[in-house]
Amino acid sequence: HRFTVDEHSFLCLYHLDNLATDTVSHAKEREQIWRQIQKKDVLRLAILFHDIGKGRNGDHSILGARLIETIAQRLRYEESDINQMVFLVLNHLLMSHTAQHRDLADPQVTADFVDTFESAEQINMMYLLTFVDMHSVSPEAMTEWKNNLLWQLYTTAREFLLGDSFDAEDPCRAMSPTEQTCQELCAEFEPELVQSHLAKLPRSYSLYQGLNTIRQHLEMVRIFDGETPLIRFYPHVDPACRDMVMVYKDKIGLFNTICTSVLLENFNIEEARLNTRADGIVANNIVIRDALGQTDIPESRQSLLKERLNRLLISDAPPPPVPKSIGRSKIGRISFENHAKIFNDSSARFTVIVVRCVDRRGLLQDLTSVLTEKNINIHFARIITEGNRVTDVFYVADPQGNKITDQDTLIQLQQNLLGMLSLNHNE
Questions:
Q1: How does pLDDT run across 26-78, given as a tens digit for each residue?
Q2: How far is CA 164 from CA 158, 168, 322, in A?
Q3: How far apart are the C-alpha atoms of 255 and 316, rounded to whole Å?
Q4: What letter does residue 260 receive in the DSSP assignment?
Q5: Burial of 148 (0-12, 13-18, 19+ CB in 10 A)
Q6: Which of 158, 131, 123 is nearest to 37 (CA)?
Q7: Is residue 395 a contact partner of residue 350, using CB atoms and an 8 Å limit?
Q8: Contact present, 211 and 236 (Cβ < 8 Å)
Q9: Which tens digits make up the pLDDT trace of 363-407?
Q10: Are 11 and 112 in contact (CB under 8 A)?
Q11: Close Cβ partners of 317 (under 8 Å, ≥ 6 residues apart)
């Protein structure tokens, strides 16, 4: 958060009042959703007080829900409106967490999310609250990636809830993201290549990657020979970062090898989006930042990282040990508790591992080392760095592609991850 709670709350109302002129995509659709809201004052009050529980001991969502109930009663709102406000404040983090940390192509994720709501009006309110909340964290917080993930979850949940009564002529649902992406890219690439590529990936891929990134993937997939790694670097909005795109064949330990190479060349991973196609080809995006604090990354260093990655990927030898003292480490709040949780009910196909902790140098390399040692394959991942905190979500399976269900294995895996998080390599 760039702003204090009061500034943030007023900014939320500002963005609510300026939905139609917002620069990120789907602005017109959001304006239409706002016009459809029946109790606009209820939503405004929920937005104004959604973070009122911050600064007190305990979960700020739970505390905020209690406070807004008292406030709404003093304002003499009807019980149904009070319940709506309490619901919105209590669950105001649910939508952003689901959009950014879960596989939106998994029908069970949508079903579990929709189970929380009682009506389309609630989903409309929650979507707008979540959008303005994320948009008001900082000027650069609402990226197209986050915006598109949120939009996909909203449209999928709304269709899931309304079923056959959903209006197909509604401009909010005029064309699916996959159909739109396919239509635009077929003008540049062979239609068979585009259709085959999209068909081998989850439906969410065409949203959270974006058109330019999919274009990069297609260019590389078209010339991939099945054996030689393809690695390219693209500019990033932050000049101290680069977007490293890789197309290669999937194997256990692949992401660990990437993390090792990045560390050895004095870079940090800021964000990672891993995509495994049904045919075993991966199309990965890794945002790297210079660990030495330089404000630009010369092509010579990009070439060194590419050469090291090629050597390690082609070789079947285990990655070399990594000295964690290289470069500068991030200093996080020691009061922030580490979490490593494992779920088998969050995805129909995979075991889901969610790690939240203070960032430090070598963290991803350590975590992926644990998974590699356990012979666990990462099929899908989201790596999100927010200030000095990180949220790493891994969708994993055993070598046969099945969920990890043995309780002893799950307990040991969680203990190993927590043990790795407790290490401090900079002492």
A1: 899 999 999 999 999 999 999 999 989 988 877 888 999 999 999 999 999 99
A2: 11, 9, 55
A3: 14
A4: H
A5: buried
A6: 123
A7: yes
A8: no
A9: 888 899 999 999 998 887 777 777 677 888 888 888 888 889 888
A10: no
A11: none
Residue 344's closest CA among 420, 398, 384? 398
Angle between helices 107-114 and 144-162 (to 10 degrees): 70
Tell me if residue 36 falls in helix, strand or coil.
helix
C-alpha dihedral over 72, 76, 77, 83, to 10 degrees? 50
Q: What's the alpha-carbon Rg for the chain, to the nearest Å?
A: 22
Query: 281-290 and 267-275 as β-strands: parallel, antiparallel, unpaired?
Result: antiparallel
- Classify residue 164 by its DSSP letter: G
Torsion from C-alpha of 11, 16, 22, 26, nearest 10 degrees: 140
Distance CA 241, CA 235 (A): 7
Q: Do 313 and 248 form a contact (C-beta atoms < 8 A)?
A: yes
Contacts with 353 (C-beta within 8 Å, 6 or more apart), sequence order: 340, 341, 342, 343, 371, 392, 393, 394, 396, 413, 417
Summarised one tens digit per residue, pLDDT across range 66-82 is: 999 999 999 999 999 99
**Structural contact between residues 380 and 274, judged by C-beta atoms closer than 8 angstroms:** yes
How far is residue 218's CA from residue 189's CA, in Å, rounded to a whole number? 8
CB 391 within 8 A of CB 354: yes
Which residues are CB-contacts of 10 (< 8 A; sequence separation ≥ 6)?
none
Q: How far apart are CA 391 and CA 393, in angstroms?
A: 7
Determine contact, residues 399/375, Cβ cutoff 8 Å. yes
pLDDT at 1 over 90: no
pLDDT score at 424: 55
Q: What is the DSSP letter of 269?
A: E
- Is 364:392 a contact under the CB 8 Å cutoff? yes
CA distance 278 to 198: 10
Any bridge partners for residue 281, and if so which?
Answer: 249
Look up residue 49 and give its amino acid: F
Indicate the burial class of 5 (C-beta count within 10 angstroms; 0-12, 13-18, 19 or more): middle
* Cβ neighbour number for residue 316 with a 10 Å cutoff: 8
Residue 178 parent element (H or E): helix 177-185
Question: Rounded to the nearest 5 degrees, what angle is found at the Cα of 153, between the Cα atoms of 123 and 20?
Answer: 70
Specify the range with the lowest mean pLDDT, choosing from 175-179, 300-304, 350-354, 411-415: 175-179
pTM of the prediction? 0.62
